[in-house]
Amino acid sequence: MLSLKKYLTEGLIQFTILLSLMGVRVDLDSYLPSHLPPLHEIILGPTSAYTQTQFHSLRGTSDGYGVHPKSVDLDHFFTSRRLLNSVRALDRLQVPTTELDAWLVHREAEGSVSSAQTGSSRPADSPQELPGSENNLRDALVAEQGRGTEDLEELGATAQPGNSDLSKEDIDLIDILWRQDIDLGVGREDFLLHDKRNDELWESPQDDLQVDILEPALLVDGETGENVRHQDQAALSIEECLSLLDASYAFGSPAEFSDSAPSDLQDAERFPGPSTQTDELLSPFLPVMENPVDLEEQWQDLMSLMDMQVMDDNNSADTSLQSSLYPPLQPDVDLERMALPSCSRDQSDIFSSSLEPFVATDSPLPQFSSHNSSDVNSTFGLTNLTGILFSQHLNSTTNLTAPEVLPDPLGGILDEALLDEISLMDLALEEGFSQVQASQLREELDSDSGLSLDSHRSPASPSGSESSSSSSCSSSSSFSEEGAVGYSSDSEVVDQEDSDGAIGYQPEYSKFCRMSSQNPSHYQRLPFLEHIGHNHTYNMMPDEPEEQPVASRGSRRQSGFLDRQAGRDEQRARAMKIPFSNEKIINLPVEEFNELLTKYQLSEAQLCLVRDIRRRGKNKMAAQNCRKRKLDTILNLEQEVKRLNRERSARLREKGENIRSLQQMKQEVENLYQEVFSQLRDQHGRPYSSQRHALHYNSNGNIVLVPRGAEGQQGRRPEKKDQRK
DNA sequence: TTGAATTGTCATCTC
DNA sequence: CTGAGATGACAATTC
Questions:
Q1: What integer is the mean pLDDT of A443-470?
Q2: Nearest nt (C1') to A74 (CA)?
Q3: Burial of A662 (0-12, 13-18, 19+ CB in 10 A)
Q4: Which H helix or E strand runs over A706?
Q5: Which nucleotides of B are covered by protein (CB under 7 A)?
Q6: Can you give the pTM of this predicted structure?
Q7: Structure confidence by residue, pLDDT tens digits, A134-146
Q8: Exposed, middle or buried, A681 (CB in 10 Å: 0-12/13-18/19+)?
Q9: How far apart are CA A490 and CA A479, in angstroms?
């Protein structure tokens, strides 16, 4: 991907920009393989959709702990990470650009949408924007602009004035912005691209419905006040939304967002509100943090697209995707729709209406239609991204659950070579994407009060949401792999455990705090969703209850450490699209485990991986138990040694006492001996000489006086007997 | 930077 | 024979 990106950036993009400046609209996306994400996403990276990945990866692999680059088995992961780091570097540079675009757009929206927009490459060739839509957008953006006024001022008159003169003014603005960002390393192309994107968004024909749809999106993004964001918002990743919802849900905070049950549609509707607040709170961070996250999100989306191909259709267990998703996001259906634009459209007019505008924004309408009708896959990525956000807002009302019905959006479209490359990237993204950033953000956020954290996470503010969301989401979403795991669980807010016994994740390891109740099976169908699911699940803490109370989220900050636990196997499982959690793989009894395997038609490689995971997981636990036992044994032995030492000391004391006692007794015997001996008299009445005689005890207990040197003969010659005392 | 401690994994053995 | 568990050994990672 890196090479691809470079290629596009240096070649096609510049050429496109040139053409666009000349007034010729060129849609590179149309020339790209349908399965690929929009060109601007590939190049610029920063779309909210990628933020999902960020969250996910952060969760799952937060801090990169989840992946062990050194692992021989994960060489490809290691490589992916390197590439990913390069991508990140690029992404950071682009951050400022994004914001600037957004501000500019807002201003212009007031005057004339088309001109205001970016003025860039495309001179309003697109179908005329509806005035109403402009107004709506403008209104929506008002909140955003509040924060961005400073930036606007910096931009100076250029931003506002030239609405009418699109190309030239836009170019001027771009130049100004570009100069400002030069230090940051942002390429001018970036601006152009952003502008173009914006233009597309605005230019695309919009119905009233479309306008309405856009409005929410704009509002949401409006926090950051970035156009790009808005546009990206279309691509807003589910994870991001979820994380945002989760954050709001968990912390409650910022006013509107707080609390209520996630399931409500209102939650989705609330998005805008929180975003604005959060935006203010987050604004300081946003510029810096935002883009990286976006890039990651974009990558995530891209990866998800790739995943779809890779994904096996067999993944049966799509009981209800909705159920697996965050509760707060109620709009499970929306998510599905996002995944499957065509289907979603069919199902509900509302959805389709909402969806179309976004699709149109990113790509020319014709393109969209074609994709939509015939080739779902081609537009899938875009539509998904676009649809996600809106679906939540608009579609939340209806729960459409027909996962099984949904076709594989990308089936077989991807070029294999490209797919391989993308797959690699996907791995990298999922594993360690922006973990460093996430950790940084997390630190910042951690310093802040919990409320602030939540606010950061609010869905509304693109930049804020991204930066904060990346961190918060990662923390909250449990992506960590084992994300939240080990972790006290951030994510869990929403955890809905699968009602399905088979599918539902069950927290296993105490290590992994985070557990999302999301049902992995759903993700099988929806690759990008799958990331989310995996993240949440894998990051779970084993011992943690599946559903964590909202209050428990406070511990998220600590979860990062636990996230490390998300092991390589988690990564592997995700890479291989294993439809169930490692927890289950490891902890289920043999019978249930086999039953689980039978439920899913897994490839040989997947089966092998699952068994390896089970083996390693069990061995890991066994090793832990073994070490624990060993440690206990050592401690017991230590105690035993101490006890024995004490006993030894006691025995020594006893021995000493006995010796002393013996000495005393000997002394007494000696004294008695002397006394007895001194009283003995011979035949002449003279005492015996102790020199020549001695008293001796016979074996029979008698005491006899024997001459010295003849004690051995005493028995034979007893001179005196019965001298007992 | 070094070294100890921790942890994960593999190989092997036992039940 | 298979699976699970135990454990020594090694390597990776963290502190």
A1: 32
A2: C12
A3: exposed
A4: strand A703-707
A5: 7-11
A6: 0.28
A7: 344 333 333 333 3
A8: exposed
A9: 9
